[in-house]
Design the sequence.
């Protein structure tokens, strides 16, 4: 482990990313749009009453928090991992006495800060307009924190091991697109899990995708009973460990196949 | 002799390359049934290097030079064979090994292009855990030697190729590695810049006693820097020794350049006395003879005795011509 180097790397990546903040702000805006669209659709569907126990106000709270959670857990870096392998750019990282995952992590952390600079004020502004209903209590917030961290870890390592398949196949990033689609479908984006048909709810609660985005929000908005939250944490932790082990395995075997093209 | 710092035995690298004929039909076919071919980039190479040596790895494009360096720096796993560098197996990529080596690539950047070089240097010094005092001193020294005060505040993407190469060198040297792998360090640089980098590398090698293996297509680099060269061709090590000895072996003749003070009528008859001697086309009134090394003393003595010689010089054929001959013919 090389935390000193990692920390310095985060500072530098942040400095270089903030130079391109316009680009990242636009990206963040792009990610926000589909969620806003579905927020308005479900708000219209709920009308003055409620739908599966969710009122207009609680739907607004759910989706606004989902916008933030989604951006905090979205691992943008994974999209560049494949290119770095394909074009031989990880060569310079492999030469350094520090695991190349630090480079991905530093971009993750630096990126989150840049995205939040945009997303927090915008969601704040939206909250003033659509008046969400949020009953936050201490226990929910305390549970939300680890759930958010695990959601990020799961989403990051899951995407990272998929991206590392570039060691075998040069266009592995289509799998990342598939991951995004599944999160959209089963991760509470298209609709809160509670609004999905029963079979899909079961599938969503088993597969990892809900635990990458909607799960922390469900906890924070108080949609889950104690038991549901506990089971959710267990499944989330299990998938996170699995994603990490998959990353380790794919990395150790993939790097042996690395051909360091170019130069 | 001391224990060698680099010991390479029977190193081989075979790349698995996907292959398909051009055209849409072939690309559809390769979708379902990809074809692969093994390409031997490096075949059964063995050599050893003593600490402090400066070695030139030469050979035509695609000969296997860079592949060899990539295996030694731990970037590539070999298909077979072994290497021990400074007591480590390179491709295990242990941090203690990576701290002792540096690989500077002429066409790959170790810098973050968005920020000024000094910021990149800082990150690198932290990654390599260089103590702050030592970092300041090393970088100041390198910056002064390479004369790069002005360019330190500009983002790397705004630097010229030569300026960037200086930065790459500083980035590669600031943690004071013991072993330096330089892959085409002078690629694309102008002649003056090449010379300055060469001077710098030579001085650095002598002062810091680092072991250097460099690849280059410019013979001037190799001739100026490397007492020992290794010639790789089609993945095989076909020569390992002094550059000059390579020239002697390949070109067993010298060039005798002549200028006469008066007209010489029967010069052709004179040459005919020596069966091994050949006259090359005349340039600017200068006659050039190709003389077997063994006959040089005799031929020059006779020339001076019997002809009105104003000026005479004995030279080795240019190294480029010699190397070109091997690249073309592929044999020694």
Sequence:
């Amino acid at each position: 482990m090389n935390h000193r180097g990692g920390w310095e790397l985060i500072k530098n990546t942040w400095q270089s990313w903030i130079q391109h903040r316009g680009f990242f702000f636009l990206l963040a805006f792009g990610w926000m749009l589909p969620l806003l669209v579905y927020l308005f659709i479900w708000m219209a569907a709920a009308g003055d009453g409620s739908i599966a126990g969710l009122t207009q106000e609680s739907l607004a709270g759910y989706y606004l928090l989902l916008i933030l959670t989604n951006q905090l857990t979205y691992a943008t870096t994974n999209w560049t991992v494949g290119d770095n392998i394909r074009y031989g750019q990880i060569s310079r990282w492999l030469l350094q006495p520090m695991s190349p995952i630090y480079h991905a992590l530093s971009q993750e952390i630096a990126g989150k800060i840049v995205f939040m600079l945009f997303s927090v004020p915008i969601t704040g502004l939206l909250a003033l307009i659509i008046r969400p209903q949020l009953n936050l209590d201490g226990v929910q917030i305390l549970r939300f924190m680890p759930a958010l961290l695990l959601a990020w870890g799961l989403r990051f390592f899951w995407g990272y091991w998929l991206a590392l398949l570039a060691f075998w196949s040069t266009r592995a990033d289509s799998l990342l697109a598939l991951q995004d689609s599944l999160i959209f479908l089963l991760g509470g984006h298209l609709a809160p899990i509670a609004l999905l048909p029963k079979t899909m709810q079961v599938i969503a609660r088993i597969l990892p995708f809900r635990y990458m985005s909607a799960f922390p929000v469900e906890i924070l908005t108080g949609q889950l009973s104690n038991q549901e939250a506990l089971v959710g944490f267990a499944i989330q932790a299990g998938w996170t460990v699995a994603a990490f082990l998959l990353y380790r395995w794919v990395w150790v075997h993939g790097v042996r196949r690395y051909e360091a093209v170019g130069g | 002799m001391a224990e060698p710092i680099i010991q390479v035995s029977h190193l081989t690298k075979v790349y698995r390359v996907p292959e398909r004929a051009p055209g849409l039909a072939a690309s559809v076919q390769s979708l379902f049934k990809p074809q692969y071919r093994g390409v031997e980039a490096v075949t059964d190479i063995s050599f050893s290097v003593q600490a402090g040596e400066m070695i030139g790895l030469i050979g035509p494009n695609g000969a296997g030079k860079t592949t060899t360096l990539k295996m030694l720096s731990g970037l590539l796993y070999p298909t077979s064979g072994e290497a021990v560098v400074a007591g480590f197996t390179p491709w295990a990529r242990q941090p203690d090994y990576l701290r002792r080596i540096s690989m500077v690539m002429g066409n790959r950047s170790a810098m973050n292009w968005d920020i000024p070089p000094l910021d990149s240097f800082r990150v690198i010094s932290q990654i390599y855990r260089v103590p702050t005092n030592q970092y300041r001193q090393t970088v100041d020294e390198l910056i002064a030697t390479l004369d790069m005060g002005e360019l330190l505040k500009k983002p790397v993407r705004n630097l010229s190729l030569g300026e960037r190469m200086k930065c790459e060198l500083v980035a590669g040297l600031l943690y004071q590695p013991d072993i330096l792998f330089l892959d085409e360090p002078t690629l694309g640089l102008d002649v003056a810049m090449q010379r300055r980098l060469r001077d710098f590398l030579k001085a650095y090698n002598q002062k810091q006693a680092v072991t250097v293996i460099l690849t280059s297509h410019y013979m001037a680099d190799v001739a100026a820097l490397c007492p020992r060269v290794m010639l790789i061709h089609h993945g095989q090590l076909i020569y390992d020794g002094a550059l000059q000895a390579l020239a002697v072996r390949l070109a067993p003749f010298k060039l005798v350049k002549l200028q006469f003070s008066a007209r010489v009528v029967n010069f052709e008859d004179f040459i005919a006395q020596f069966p091994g001697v050949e006259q090359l086309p005349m340039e600017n009134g200068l006659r050039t003879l190709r003389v077997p090394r063994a006959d040089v003393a005799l031929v020059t003595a006779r020339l001076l005795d019997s002809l009105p010689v104003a000026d005479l010089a004995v030279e080795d054929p240019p190294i480029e011509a010699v190397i070109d001959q091997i690249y073309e013919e592929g044999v020694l």
Observations:
- The longest helix of chain A spans residues 226-257.
- The interface with chain B takes residues 2, 4-5, 7-9, 12-13, 15-16, 19-20, 88-89, 91-92, 94-98, 256-260, 262-263 of chain A (CB under 8 Å).
- Strands of chain A lie at 50-51, 54-55.
